[in-house]
Design a protein that fits this description.
37% of the residues lie in helices and 18% in strands. By secondary structure, it is α+β, with helices and mostly antiparallel strands. Helix 5 runs antiparallel to helix 7 (289-305). The longest helix is centred in the N-terminal third of the chain and has 28 residues, at 38-65.
């Protein structure tokens, strides 16, 4: 193959992959650098090189006769870049009170807290990075902050209250989800069917409760899609429950501590949540609102199965083969045919044939109406 009209003196990465009736290989990356442009080479020799030498000579003379040249430390430059003011509400640290820790990873921590805005005190959750975090991890938190500003406020999204960025550590203050993680409640709800124990934290989910939670998640994802935000990691573990078990989508845009969780598996694309990913994401690393819809189908399966592990017993590569053969997750016990049909519609091989999040909200509200439940969000 001859590739023309390439830029001179540029490195190109070419992926070679083999396709046949048995499937497609992961391929190999070949890097090749194009030859320099002869005109540019002559220009460098005739003009640029002499000028560069002249500038270098002037700089040396200036430095020799200058008393002291004090360079700004790299960490000071990084800190200046990190603390640029954004469009969020900048809060004083004295207005934020941290209580008990809600969770932590290798580099980040989340605390339950309270923030004072004017005369009002509001419960909140506070995200911060640990002292040993690198500049990259600090920027990850700032990136999430910027995404939350873009996403704005919504009842089914963990929305931003404000941030403290003038000094370190950076604090990101978000709405508190009083009832915690959806996945843990799903598992407790399933366990209480088999084990006779008393736990005030365990929530009993009826079929209406499960559909309501699914509708809330779809509604939150509809808001994200309208804001042109692709989640990339929608799963029950990333859904939180607020008052009255109102579901809120969380952790969009955040570079999570993926090595801390067994739900992320090593593939040629890195550590990925394989069991929640669409087939095109697994094969070609494509992420769109349609791939989020696929993930929503898996979340709906988690809700109906009581928080079970999707594709239990299969490894990452086996899951790809399983899906390519046309197989899908089985209908959970107690799940109605109508809900399972909504689920499987999310797993269509053709992204264009999957429902939109608006379609999903409408379908789930219709299921609630059939059961005589309120569809008010």
């Amino acid at each position: 193959m001859v590739v023309e009209d390439l830029e001179p003196s540029s490195e190109y990465a070419i992926r070679l992959s083999i396709n046949n009736r048995y499937g497609r290989s992961d391929g190999a990356i070949i890097k090749q650098t194009t030859l320099p442009d002869t005109f540019m080479k002559k220009l460098i020799l005739v003009i640029v090189l002499p000028l560069s030498l002249a500038v270098f000579f002037v700089v040396v003379i200036c430095l020799k006769f200058r008393p002291i040249f004090r360079a700004e430390k790299p960490d000071q430059i990084e800190k200046t870049e990190m603390l640029l003011q954004g469009d969020w509400v900048e809060l004083e640290r004295s207005e934020v009170k941290l209580d008990e820790m809600l969770g932590e990873g290798a580099f980040g921590e989340v605390y339950k807290g309270e923030v004072q805005i004017g005369v009002e005190k509001r419960p909140c959750a506070v995200k911060k990075v640990k002292e040993n975090a690198t500049t990259l991890e600090k920027r990850d938190l700032l990136n999430e902050l910027k995404i939350m500003v873009t996403v704005g406020e919504h009842s089914n999204v963990v929305s931003l209250i404000g941030a403290c960025t003038r000094n370190e550590p950076i604090l990101v203050i978000v709405r508190l989800a009083e009832n915690g993680c959806l996945l843990s409640h799903l598992r407790k709800n399933r366990e209480r069917q088999y084990i006779n124990f008393k736990a005030e934290s365990a929530v009993h989910f009826t079929s209406v409760d499960k559909i309501t939670i699914a509708r809330d998640v779809a509604n939150g994802m509809l808001h994200l899609s309208n804001k042109k935000c692709v989640h990339r990691d929608l799963a029950a573990r990333n859904v939180l429950l607020g008052k009255n078990n109102v579901a809120m989508v969380s952790d969009f845009g955040l570079s999570r501590d993926v090595y801390e969780s067994g739900e992320y598996e090593n593939t040629s694309g890195g550590m990925l949540p394989v069991r929640w990913m669409a087939i095109e994401s697994l094969e070609d690393y494509i992420y769109t609102t349609q791939t989020d819809v696929w993930s929503f189908g898996v979340v709906l399966w988690e809700i109906e199965s009581g928080g079970r592990k999707p594709y239990s017993g299969l490894g990452g590569i086996e899951i790809v083969d399983f899906l390519k053969s046309g197989k899908r997750l089985q209908q959970p016990d107690g799940c109605s045919d109508e809900i399972y049909q909504i689920m499987t519609s999310c797993w269509n091989l053709k992204p264009s044939k999957r429902p939109t999040f608006q379609d999903l909200v409408t379908s789930l509200e219709q299921e609630l109406e059939k059961r005589g439940a309120s569809t008010h969000t």
